Automatic annotation (TrEMBL):
Pfam families: Aldedh
Family matches, as PROSITE patterns: ALDEHYDE_DEHYDR_CYS (PS00070), ALDEHYDE_DEHYDR_GLU (PS00687)
Catalytic activity: succinate semialdehyde + NAD(+) + H2O = succinate + NADH + 2 H(+); succinate semialdehyde + NADP(+) + H2O = succinate + NADPH + 2 H(+)
GO cellular component entries: cytoplasm
Name of the protein this chain belongs to: Succinate-semialdehyde dehydrogenase
Organism: Kuraishia capsulata CBS 1993
Keywords: Oxidoreductase
Enzyme class, spelled out: oxidoreductase
Domain of life per record: Eukaryota
Record: active site: 265
GO biological process: one example: gamma-aminobutyric acid catabolic process
Length: 495
C-alpha cells in the first residue's frame, strides 16, 4: 500500500509512509485497522493499525519507562544532537511531509509546507535549549549550609495531539520532552496518524534510542480508553494535551488519582479588534491570515472580529474584496488553491449552523454563506457575515471554520469588555497606531497571547498557551522545557 500511495501522490521517500505502531524501536502491525480518508475527496488513503490497548499498557508504556532509566542520564549536548538531526531530516523531507499533511488534513500544500517548517523549528529550538537546562546556587541563612538546585526530567510523558496541526502539535511537545531527558508515548489524532508516524520514522532514522519515542495510533472508539489509561497509569508522570476544553476537564479529573503534572492547550474564542486609528489594509491582511488560515481550523484563529463603527464600512468592503479576489477554495494538492476542506461533515454542519443562526437573528451575508458540495462533501464557502450581534451563536461559540463575523463597537472600553466576555483566553488580536493604546489593550485582554498589529503570532521562540478555560502551561520558547522538569534542591551542611 505504501508504494501505491507514494506513486499516487508523488511522495519520493516511500519509507515515510508508515501504517504500524512504533513501540520500543519496532514497527508493530496488527489485524485490527482503521481507515484514513482524504477530506478533500473522501477517498481512502490508508489503513492504519488500531493499536490494542493492551499493547499500549503492557509494551509501549513499560518500554518508555525502561528507556527513561538510561535516557535521563544522557547529556544535554547528546540530546541536542538528536534533535538537530531530527530537524535536518524533516527539512530534507519537507515536500513529502507536506503532501502527507495535505492528503490527510486537507490544508493547501503551501500551508502544509509552512507547517512542516514550523514543526521542524521546534526540534531546532529545543536542540539549542537542551544543553542549557541548569539550576541555581542559593545563599542560605545558615552560614554553614549551601543550597543548590538541579533540574531533572519528570519521567515518561503521555502526549495527546489533535488533527489540525498533525506535525507541529507533536514536535512542539516532543522537542521539549526530549530536550529535558524525558521519554514519550504519543497518541496522534485518528484523522491524521500518517504525519505522526512519519515523525516516528524520522526519530528512528535520527538514532533516537529504542523506547524513547513511541507512537500508538488508535481509532476514535478506543481514544477515550487510551486517554484514561494515560491519565491513570502511575508510570506516566506528565500529560501534554491539545484539544477541547471539555476533554481537558475530563483528563484533569482522571489524572487526579496519580497526581500528574499537566499542560493543556484547550479551546479558544479569540477576539480581533480593529480600532478607528488602525491601518485598515494591514488589518484586513491580518484578519485573513488569522481568521482564515487552514479554513479557520486553528485554535488561535480570530473567532469574533470587532470593528470600530467609524471604519466598519471601509474594513468590511476591503475584507470582502480581498477574500473574493485572492482566496481560492479546493483540493489542497491542486495548483493555485489557498484553502482546503474542513476535516469532516460535522465541522461543515457547525459552520452552517452558525451562519443560519446569525442570518435568522438579523446578520447579513457579505460573501459566501453556503456549503460547496460541487467541490466535495467537506467544503464550505469562505464566508463573511456583517451586522453580527452578541446574541448570535458565532459571538459565543468557537466556530472552527471559514466564517468571519463582523461586530461593530464604539469605544475602547467597550471593545475590551466584549473581547473579555468569554471564559476562554487563548489568543487575542488588535490593530492600532496609538502606542499608548497598544500597551493598554495588550495588558487588558484576558488571554495568554496577544498579537498587536499582526495576525500571525506563532513561532518556536514564543511561549504558547492560554488562561482560563483555554488551559495552562506554556509550549515553545525558553519556558517550554519547564513543564517537563522537576526542580530538586540539595542542601549541603557542615561547610
Amino acid at each position: 500500500m505504501s508504494a501505491a500511495l507514494a506513486a499516487k501522490y508523488g511522495i519520493k521517500n516511500v519509507d515515510l509512509i508508515r501504517t504500524e505502531a512504533f513501540v520500543n524501536g519496532k514497527w508493530i502491525n496488527g489485524d485490527s485497522k482503521f481507515t484514513v480518508d482524504n477530506p478533500a475527496t473522501s477517498e481512502l488513503i490508508a489503513e492504519v493499525v488500531d493499536t490494542p490497548v493492551a499493547l499500549i499498557e503492557n509494551e509501549a508504556i513499560p518500554a518508555a519507562v525502561t528507556a527513561f532509566n538510561s535516557f535521563k542520564k544522557t547529556t544535554g549536548r547528546y540530546r541536542s544532537g538528536l534533535l538537530t538531526r531530527m530537524y535536518e531530516l524533516m527539512m530534507e523531507n519537507l515536500d513529502d511531509l507536506a503532501i502527507l499533511i495535505t492528503i490527510e488534513n486537507g490544508k493547501s500544500l503551501a500551508d502544509a509546507a509552512g507547517e512542516v517548517k514550523y514543526a521542524a523549528s521546534f526540534y531546532q529550538w529545543f536542540a539549542e535549549e537542551a544543553p542549557r537546562i541548569y539550576g541555581d546556587t542559593i545563599p542560605s541563612a545558615n552560614g554553614s549550609n549551601r543550597i543548590i538546585t538541579v533540574k531533572q526530567p519528570i519521567g515518561v510523558v503521555g502526549i495527546l495531539t489533535p488533527w489540525n496541526f498533525p506535525s507541529a502539535m507533536i514536535t512542539r511537545k516532543l522537542g521539549a520532552a526530549l530536550a529535558a531527558g524525558c521519554t514519550a508515548v504519543i497518541k496522534p489524532a485518528a484523522e491524521t496518524p500518517l504525519s505522526a508516524l512519519a515523525l516516528g520514522y524520522i526519530a528512528e532514522l535520527a538514532g533516537v534510542p529504542a523506547g524513547v519515542v513511541n507512537l500508538v495510533p488508535v481509532s476514535q472508539e478506543p481514544t477515550k480508553v487510551v486517554g484514561k489509561l494515560f491519565c491513570e497509569s502511575p508510570s506516566i508522570r506528565k500529560i501534554s494535551f491539545t484539544g477541547s476544553t471539555g476533554v481537558g476537564k475530563l483528563l484533569m479529573q482522571q489524572s487526579a488519582s496519580s497526581l500528574k503534572k499537566l499542560s493543556f492547550e484547550l479551546g479558544g474564542n479569540a477576539p480581533f479588534i480593529v480600532f478607528d486609528d488602525a491601518d485598515i489594509d494591514a488589518a484586513v491582511d491580518g484578519a485573513i491570515a488569522c481568521k482564515l488560515r487552514q479554513s479557520g481550523q486553528t485554535c488561535v484563529c480570530a473567532n469574533r472580529i470587532y470593528v470600530h463603527s467609524k471604519v466598519y464600512d471601509e474594513f468590511s468592503t476591503k475584507l470582502v474584496a480581498k477574500v473574493r479576489d485572492n482566496l481560492t477554495l479546493g483540493n489542497g494538492l491542486h495548483k493555485g488553491i489557498t484553502h482546503g476542506p474542513l476535516i469532516h461533515g460535522r465541522a461543515v454542519a457547525k459552520v452552517q449552523q452558525h451562519v443560519e443562526d446569525a442570518v435568522a437573528k438579523g446578520a447579513k451575508i457579505l460573501h459566501g454563506g453556503k456549503t460547496a458540495p460541487h467541490l466535495g462533501e467537506n467544503f464550505h464557502e469562505i464566508t463573511v457575515v456583517g451586522d453580527v450581534t452578541h446574541d448570535m451563536l458565532v459571538s459565543r461559540e468557537e466556530t472552527f471554520g471559514p466564517l468571519a463575523p463582523l461586530i461593530k463597537f464604539d469605544t475602547e472600553d467597550e471593545a475590551i469588555a466584549l473581547a473579555n466576555s468569554t471564559e476562554f483566553g487563548l489568543a487575542g488580536y488588535f490593530y492600532t497606531r496609538d502606542y499608548a493604546r497598544l500597551f493598554r489593550v495588550g495588558e487588558a485582554l484576558h488571554v495568554g497571547m496577544a498579537g498587536a498589529n499582526t495576525g500571525a503570532i506563532s513561532e518556536a521562540a514564543m511561549p504558547f498557551g492560554g488562561v482560563g478555560h483555554s488551559g495552562f502551561g506554556r509550549e515553545g520558547s525558553k519556558y517550554g522545557v519547564e513543564d517537563y522538569i522537576v526542580i530538586k534542591t540539595i542542601v549541603i551542611g557542615g561547610i
